Amino acid sequence: MAEPLVIATNLSKKFGDFQAVDGIDFQIAPGEAFGFLGPNGAGKTSTMKMIAATSPVTSGTLSVFGLDPATAGPAIRARLGVVPQEDNLDTELTVEENLFIYGRYFDLPRAEIRQRIDELLAFAQLADRKKSKVDPLSGGMKRRLTIARGLINRPEILILDEPTTGLDPQARHLLWDRLYRLKRDGATLVITTHYMDEAEQLCDRLVIMDKGKIVGEGSPRSLIQEHSTREVVELRFPAGEQELVASRIEGIGSRIEVLPDRILVYADEAEKAIEEVHNRGLEPEMILARRSTLEDVFLHLTGRSLVD
Amino acid sequence: MAAPALRVVEANARFYRHTWRGSVISSFAVPFFTLLAMGGGLGRLVDQGAGTGRGAYLGFIAPALLAATAMMTAAGESTYPVVAGIKWTKNYHAALATPIRPPDLVNGLIGFLGIRLIFNLAVYAGIMVLLDAMEVGPALAAVGPAVLTGVAFATPIAAWCATLDDDRALSSFFRFGLMPMFLFSGTFFPVDQLPSFLQPIVFLSPLWHGVELARGAAGVPESPHFPWWVHTLVLVALAVVGLFLAGRNFTKRLHT
Predict the structure, then answer these.
(1) Which fold does the domain A6-219 belong to in CATH?
(2) Per-residue model confidence (pLDDT) at position A307
(3) What angle do CA B213, B199, B181 make, to 5 degrees?
(4) Is B98 in Cβ contact with A88 (below 8 Å)?
(5) The CATH number of A229-291 is which of 3.30.70, 1.10.1060, 3.30.2250, 1.10.10?
(6) pTM confidence score
(7) What does the angle CA B152 – CA B137 – CA B190 come to, to the nearest 5 degrees?
(8) Which of A76, A92, A157 best tests the B interface by mutation, with the highest count of B CBs <10 A?
C-alpha cells in the first residue's frame, strides 16, 4: 500500500476543559474517500481543522504529507483544498474574483489562475455565472463555488466539512455527482458528515465518531456487516403501548432497539421476523422492512441516534 | 514585506475596487468641508483676533487635519473589517486555509492601509495647496508624518478588534474615544488653550503627537512641549507594539 497521506496517533484536542477530540488513531491513503461520521459535537470539525493545519494539536501526533502541522503549516496548506462547513466566500466580489484571489493566496501565476478558473467553473456548472456577484447565488451554487475554490491549487487532498448540510435534495445530488467525478479522477477526499446516506454514498472507508472518540472503523459495508444484521424491521405501536409490547417482541431476530416512536427488530430475514410478530398476536400500526444502514450501526455502537 | 502579505495586499486592493465609492465621502468630502468651514470661516475670526501664536489659522490646522484624517481612515479600516473577517463574512478563515498565516493578514491589512493613506493624503494635501492652506513642499512633507499617525492607530486597534466578539464596543470607541481625541488633540487650537491640568492628558493622545509631527514637517513653528523626535518615537513605538500584538491576537483567535 502507498504511504498514507495522513497519519494520526492518539490525536487529541482540548478547548479549555472541553475534550473535543479524545485520543484517536487513523490513517488516510492516497486516492481514498475517507469519512468522519458522527453527530454534531462529535469532534469531526476539530479533527478536520487539525488536519488542515489551522488548529494546533493538543496532544498526540499528526503527520500530513509526512510533515508536522505545527511547524510546516503553510507547506501543508499549499497542498490541501478546504471546503468549510459555512461558505466563507467574499460576497462583495464576483464568482471569478473569488477564485482569482484564492489562487493568488497560493501564489499561482495570474495567467495560470485564469485558465483554471474556466476549467473549475465548467466543473462546478457555474460557467455562466462567472461575472456575477456571489450574493445572489443559490445555496447549492455557493457550495459548488466553494468546492471550485478549494480545487484552485490542484490539491492532493480535498477536505470537505459537512458538504451538503443545508442543501435541498436536488442540489445535494448534483454536488455528490461532482464529488464522484473527483473521486473517479483519483482525488483523495476527506469528508465529515452527520448524514449516513452521504457517508454510504461517498466514502470508501470511514470512522464513526462519538464524543471525541472513534467507536467504529471500516467500509460502510463492512461496518454494517460487523455491527448490524442484514435487514431491519421497524414496528410502530400506538403511543404509550411501545414499552408494553417491547417485552413480547424480545427474542425475535438477533436483537431489538426500543426508540421513542418505534421498535427496531434486527434480523437477517425480515419476512420471518414479521411472521413471528404476527404469530405472537401483535398488530403494529405500521411495519416497515428495510436494509441495515450506518444509522443502525451508529445506534448499536453508541446507543443513540445520529441526528437528534 | 513577505510574499504572502503582498498577496493579502493584492486581495484587499481587489476588494477595494468594489467598495471605494462608499469611502470617498469619509476620505475626501468630510476632510474637505472641515478644512473649508474651520479654515475659511473660523480661521478668519481667529486671525483677526488673538491668533494661534503659530502662524495663520488655515496653515495651522491643515497639517493637523492630514494627521486627523489619517487617524479616522485607519480606524475605519482596522475596526469593522477585522471583526467582519473573523466573525461575519469570515473571509479571514477562508484566507487561512491557504499558505497565508494570521500575521500575513495583519501585514496585508496594514500594507494596504499604508498605500491608501499615501494616496488619499496626497490628494488631500493637493486640495490644501489649491485652497492656499499650504505651499506644495510643506504639504508633501506633512503627508509622511500623517501616514505614520494612521499606522500607529491601525495596528493597536486591529490587535484590540481581533479580541472582540461583536461590534458593540466599536460605536462607543468612535464616539467616546476617537471623537474627543479628534477635537482635543491640539488639532484645532494650541493645547496651551486648555487648563494646565488637562495638558498632560493631551500628551497621552497619539493624535497630538501625529498632529505636532505633521505641523513640524510642514514648517509651522514648533510646539514648546516636545521635540519632533519624541513624537516620532511615540508613533513608531505604537505602530510596532501594535503590529506585534495584532499578529499575536490574530493567531490566537484564528488558529484555535
Answers:
(1) Rossmann fold (3.40.50)
(2) 55
(3) 60
(4) no
(5) 3.30.70
(6) 0.91
(7) 55
(8) A92
